[in-house]
């Protein structure tokens, strides 16, 4: 049952985080479309002018990879709670999301460093934004697990 919770919550949280990044991309006119960035880098399809690939297969690779990673991190969150690290509430969702965001920022930075042809984006802005996106992920994941597993628990405490 916990695997099902991880899949459902991981999908919901990843979708919320992705929507947050796409909304910011729309509002700020900066490249923050994580699926296109991830897909372009995974398929090594950075255009000669260092822009992102728009091919359907690039988006498919980016989407699948992003959602699989979201489910894997949901399993980590559930493992922490199962080990009695933290509670399934908003405060811990925020803290887990913050820690997750800092880790993601570091891993993305390394990915850009080692990639043979990374796209040119405002990396500093993107990395800082990832922290906030992962806080959204942590809150949505925690709330989804709460709704699935603990309907009598006061979430907002």
Automatic annotation (TrEMBL):
UniProt KW keywords: Membrane, Transmembrane, Transmembrane helix
Keyword presence, Membrane: yes
Transmembrane segments: 6-27, 60-80, 92-114, 126-149
Protein name: DUF2938 domain-containing protein
Source lineage: Bacteria, Pseudomonadati, Bacteroidota, Cytophagia, Cytophagales
